[in-house]
Amino acid sequence: MTEQxxxxxxxxxxxxxxxxxxxxxxxxxxxxxxxxxIDGVGGYAGGEVAAALARDIILKRLEKPSGEIIPxxxxxxxxxxxxxxxxxxxxxxxxxxxCVCSLALVDIQNNQFYFAHxxxxxxxxxxxxxxxxxxHDQSFVGFLEDSGRLTxxxxxxxxxxxxxxxxxxLDKHLGDDKEYVETGQSPFxxxxxxxxxxxxxxxxxxxxxxxxxxxxxxSLKEKCHQLVxxxxxxxxxxxxxxxxxxxxxxxxxxxxxxxxxxxxxxxNEKINPLTGDDPLPAQKLLKTKNKTGMVTLLFVLMLFFFxxxxxxxxxxxxxPPSLPxxxxxxxxxxxxxxxxxxxxxxxxxxxxxxxxxxxxxTAPLLxxxxxxxxxxxxxxxxxxxxxxxxxxGYKGPAFQLSAKCxxxxxxxxxxxxxxxxxxxxxxxxxxxxxxxxxCPVQVESTYTFPDKKYISGKLSPAAFRVxxxxxxxxx
Length: 475
Fold this sequence. Notes:
Layout: E1 5-10, E2 20-26, E3 33-41, H1 46-61, H2 69-89, E4 98-107, E5 112-118, E6 122-127, E7 130-133, H3 140-146, H4 152-157, E8 182-187, E9 193-197, H5 199-202, H6 207-214, H7 220-233, E10 240-246, H8 281-316, H9 337-347, E11 353-357, E12 365-367, E13 371-373, E14 377-383, E15 387-390, E16 397-401, E17 407-411, E18 414-416, E19 420-425, E20 429-432, E21 435-437, E22 441-446
Parallel strand pairs: 11-14, 12-15, 13-16, 14-17, 15-18, 16-19, 17-20, 18-21, 19-22
Antiparallel strand pairs: 1-10, 2-3, 3-4, 4-5, 5-8, 6-7, 6-9, 9-10
Helix pairs in contact: 1-2
C-alpha cells in the first residue's frame, strides 16, 4: 500500500489566526488511521487553545486503543470536554472557548471505519465517485438543510449558518446526553475515501464541486490543496481544514478457468507439449493401472466390512449389549461472542463511566452466564437500545455484583426473561431508567457482616421508584 491519508489546514483569506487543527496519522500499533478535524470557537486565541487541548487529549487516549472502539471515542470527547471546561474556569481570557470536532478511526485491514462527531465539522464518504454526507450539522440551519427545508445553496448563505448548539466545552454533562455526540460505524471498502473538513470548506464550496475534486485523479496531497484553493478562491471567509483517508488496497481478482482447446478433454489432463495431442502412451498406461488398483482395493475393503458385520451379529445375537448409563455431569454453556465482548469491556473499563453503544451490542444480547462486575465504583450507561435477554434454559442473573462493589449504576437498559435480574451486595446497586421485563425477581441483595460479631440495625426501605417514562424526559 502506498498513500493512505493526508491532512492540510489553512487560515483562509480573511482570518489572521487559525483556530482549526487536525490529526492524520496512524496509531502506535499500526491498527487504525486516526483522522480528525477540530474547529475552535470562542474569540481570538481562545478557539486555538480549545482545539489544541482537544487534539492533545484525543492523541493521548488513542496511543494504543483496546476494547470497543465507539466507547473509546466517546471517552476521547468526554475527556476533551472536561479539560476545556477546567481551563475555562482558570482563564478569564478564554472563558468562552469551545470547539467542534469530527473524529474517525479507520481499520483498513478489516474494511471498517468508526466515527464520533460534535458540531458542524463534517465527515463524508466517497464511494464510486459519489459524495455521501455521514454526519449531521448540529445547528438550526444544519437541521433545516438535512430535513430538506433549505437547499444547500440557501443554507450556505444563511445568516445563522455558523450558530452551533453543541460543542466540546459547552456542557458540563456531555456524557449524560445520548444524542449529544453522534456516533456510528460503516464498511470502508476498497477504493472508498473519507473526507473530514471544517465549515471553512463547506461554507465556500458546494458538494458538487467537492465531489469533482475528490473523485478526480491525483494524490491525496494534491486533492487537499485543490480543496483549500477552491475555498480561498470563493472568498476564504474562515479557516479551512481537510483530511483525506483512502482505502487503496488492491482488489482481489480471480482468473476464470480456461476451456481446454482440444475437444472435451478434462482441464486436469495434460497435453503433449510436443504435439498438442493426447497424453503420451506411458501416461495413459499409468492411469489405467491406477484405476485397476483402486477397484481391487475397494472390493477387498467391502469384503472385510461384511465379514466384521456378520461376526458382530452372531456374537451379540443372544446377548445384546446393555445401554450406556446417561451422564449426570452438567454441561457448561458456551458463552457467545456478545457476552464475552461485554464482559471484556466491563473488565477493561478505565474511569468511573462506561458507555455501551447499540452499534457495538445488537439487541437482544443473549446471556447464558452472569456478567460479573468487580469494580469499586462504575456507571454503565447505554447509548441507544441495549437489551439483555436470558438464553433458553439459563436460570441465573443478568448481572452479578461482587462484594467489592460499593456503587454501581446501571442506566438505560432492559433485562428480559431472567429468573433474577441482578444480584448485589450491601445496597451497592443504583438504577436509572432500567426496565425489567418478565423477571419474577428483579433485584436480589445479600448483606455481608463480620463473622461472630453482634449485629444491630434494620434494612432501610428501598429508594427505588417506578416511572412510566424515562427520567430525562420528565419536565
